[in-house]
Amino acid sequence: xxxxxxxxxxxxxxxxxxxxxxxxxxxxxxxxxxxxxxxxxxxxxxxxxxxxxxxxxxxxxxxxxxxxxxxxxxxxxxxxxxxxxxxxxxxxxxxxxxxxxxxxxxxxxxxxxxxxxxxxxxxxxxxxxxxxxxxxxxxxxxxxxxxxxxxxxxxxxxxxxxxxxxxxxxxxxxxxxxxxxxxxxxxxxxxxxxxxxxxxxxxxxxxxxxxxxxxxxxxxxxxxxxxxxxxxxxxxxxxxxxxxxxxxxxxxxxxxxxxxxxxxxxxxxxxxxxxxxxxxxxxxxxxxxxxxxxxxxxxxxxxxxxxxxxxxxxxxxxxxxxxxxxxxxxxxxxxxxxxxxxxxxxxxxxxxxxxxxxxxxxxxxxxxxxxxxxxxxxxxxxxxxxxxx
Length: 389
Known about the structure:
- By secondary structure, this protein is α/β, with parallel strands linked by helices.
- The protein has helices at about 5-10, 10-30, 35-40, 45-55, 60-75, 115-125, 145-160, 170-180, 185-195, 210-215, 220-235, 250-265, 285, 295-310, 320-325, 325-335, 360-370; strands spanning about 75-80, 85, 130-135, 165, 195-200, 235-245, 270-275, 340-345, 375-380, 385-389.
- It folds into two domains: about 5-75, no CATH class; about 75-389, TIM Barrel (Alpha-Beta Barrel), CATH 3.20.20.70.
- It contains 17 helices and ten strands.
- The strands form three sheets. Strands 8-1-9-10 form a four-stranded mixed beta sheet, covered by helices on one side.
- Helix 2 (about 10-30) packs across helix 5 (about 60-75).
- The two termini are about 35 Å apart.
């Protein structure tokens, strides 16, 4: 096969490598990479291993190894949830350079929903078949803890069966500071009011060298980690994310993955890891010329494959966020270590603000999976299978 053919058929190549060569042949093909040999053998990868794989020049072998490890750890099922995204406010005290969603309170398109308006949207989500509602918003400087408690109680009173996945660790940290409560107090009160689980947003990249350049007015990486660990210790499970494809370097990616892995070893509280591709349009990074184009698809696949290999054995659900990658590249990513498509993303607004289309359905996601020869399954928030297709 020519190099040009390989470049155009990444998913096919990865499938062929894992399906026809098998473990023993693959091991022979990756003799030039100690890190890949360790990964195939089920060993935990260290910092230098991660750097090696971020710079490894054979993406096809990297993808094949990640896909093989995926198959060994979680099998051939690809899951997704019926999820409704709800942003309660776009008013934000932070002004992050990588965000196109936030507004200041005096802008004409700034908004804040009441708990009653939020409950009405949750009712719509239920009619659409959603099993979870994903609620996040800006850092509103004038909302007290009672607003968030009222939101949870109002939803649960009318829709007790709906899983409320709400508030990133960054939001929780902000609310605690704003209301002069401890993080533990805020989490405990929200859990008592109806909070079931948490999304993984706000993590961005933990390393201060890069975080300080893309985040303004948000918690530090360590504060995010400390907040999410407290949530896990209170029995609140969460997702984990990483924003990549902007101005980071390989060492920032590896550092982020290792820090998440250490929390997971202690708490076992992460449900899935979602690498989030940076969307450029309308962001300050674009306007200032700091980022002039979005990351290459080959880079996106490398990050997803590395995530599978670095987190293997500790956090085995690797989610491919089709909203950020696009549906076709997401299929390829499923052949590079991914085993989950996150969900339908009904009413998603944050990536839409940065120019991405966000419409899909359960049937469309199932067909995406079938097209690549994998087994689609609808799940709930906690990765329990609800329906197979």
